[in-house]
Amino acid sequence: MNAAAMGKADETLRRVFGFESWRPGQREIVEAVLSGRDALAILPTGGGKSLCYQLPAVVLDSLVLVVSPLIALMKDQLDALEALGVGAAVLNSSLDPDEYRSAADRVRSGQVRILYAAPEALATGRLPALLAERPPIRIVVDEAHCISQWGHDFRPEYRRIAELRVRFPAASCLAVTATATDRVRDDIAGSLALRDPFVFVSSFDRPALLLRVEPKTDTKRRLIGFARNHARGKTAATGEEIKGSGIVYCLSRKSAEEIAELLSAHGIRALPYHAGLPQEERKANQEAFIRDDVDAIAATVAFGMGIDKPDVRWIVHWDLPKDLEGYYQEIGRAGRDGLPAECLLFYGRGDLIKLRRFLDLDGDDSGDSTEGDSKWAARERLDIMAAYAETEQCRRRFLLSHFGEHYLRPSCDCCDNCLRDPEDLVDLTVPAQKLISCAIRLGNRFGASHATDVLLGSNSEKIERYGHGALSVYGIGSELNRAGWMELSRRLVASGHLETVPPYEVLKATAKGRALFTAGTFRTRPIEGSRGGSSFSPGAPVKSPYRKNPSADRSRAAGTILTVPGDDELFERLRTLRKTIADKTGVPPYVVFPDRTLRELSRRKPRSVEDLEGVFGVGAHKAERYGSAFVREISEWSETGE
Length: 642
Ligand code: ADP
Ligand code: ZN
Description:
binds adenosine-5'-diphosphate; alpha/beta; Rossmann fold; binds zinc ion
């Protein structure tokens, strides 16, 4: 690769895209692409995959074909490219004949550098002829995991792409995706006949996402408070401002409707989204969300695919997701711009039981099924999801290790468990010893429910039958109620002191559990129903469970900008201006400028269009287009506000 081309790429990043630095992997991938090498890039959602093919298309002035399953949702991509001054077009069946002809003419005349097409359009119709006239120098396969039968989203029409490789042997190929296990990765490389590809697999870590799990009690009140705080602008536990729109994911269509109503009734503009709504309404609701006309969408998992909105600031999971893959994909829709965002999962054991039942019956209300998936595997995935919700360890580490990554830092400082003040943990060593001892006395052959009965000294028929009333642990557990002992048993399982053995989920003491009798302590979050532990009372102010001063590392890691007092009012004005411009030109607000640009503008307060140079997200084209309006707004604010 010659240095001149990379120099040009660096310059294009700043001048055209207005970014001061590359995201991890982008530069390496762009370098491979520019040198004409095949490449496979696995970057997390929000990792900046589009730039990996858009930037080379700007540097090398020729046609790039992007195959994507999400053509129907491409309009925003086009608008974004247009706003950057890059010629792009979509060719699909939804265009009327005139639109199609004019787009095709632009391709022929060389005005289009990036052409998006759906896989099914590749073999038939007008596209093949057009491509024969103007062959692409590069073929980009977006969502490349769809080509693999081993992936979770196989699309048979993706197999068509292989034909392109034969038809355009000189074109290089770039495959991008956010999810691919080793097997899927090999399958992608094989199916696309990649030649000695450059492979880049980035870290799955999203350091700017604050991960939280809360018990599923009093959820309506909690949700309203949470959404309201974010709609108004909320200082996160980590000290950063998080303001903007969010998504509430739920399992059923009915809850999606109810939650949208609940939020609306409490002054948070919200709309539902699920597969049961008429197509038109779905489209309109999605559009309202993207354009910031509403604060929230309450949706089933049907929502989110192909939505590029970079400034989703919060995600709530009203119900337990079915697996960590789905959960990770859904929370990945927040904070794609790299600014802080908050993810809250409501978790109750009831959900787990309900989901297990659903899986046994195969299928649920949201319309997608676990077809082709053995129940056993589905059950195992669900259990991992529940273990995530129950863990007292760093959630980020749990998540990353599930995706095969080692998280080396001792604490992420950005999940509820890492941020919890150690002072807020209670010492439950003695109850833990009692429960472990009880499991041992029961010969490691009974479940948590029976062990609880024994500890509470109840007169169940089963206790009678086995003569367990005579055990030394019988009736020694008055410090917790039934729910408390059950919860403690789950935590001891989560911490590895106990294990549950299928098929009857009997409790078994582990070596670690036995060791607790001689050394060590068991400290944990307060358990509801324990004396001395706090229990949650509706209506009362909840003490923040977070440490007050998480290390400054975190904001550095997330690449965030902390707000300076006094900026907020200007920031608000700039947001309003952005919305006005966006509505006038018919694009989403983030296409005009991302939040981070507005933050920087409200901090730096540039007085002229020239001063805009170097501001995040302001390339030459955007400076020319929007610069003066923003500069004017800033100087008006300065005159009246100071
Ligand atoms: P994905 O990998 O999910 O397709 P996108 O390509 O949509 O992600 O990028 C996510 C967001 O990150 C977009 O708003 C994009 O403009 C922004 N982005 C991409 N590259 C950079 C960069 N080098 N610096 C700052 N922001 C970037
Ligand atoms: Zn953590």
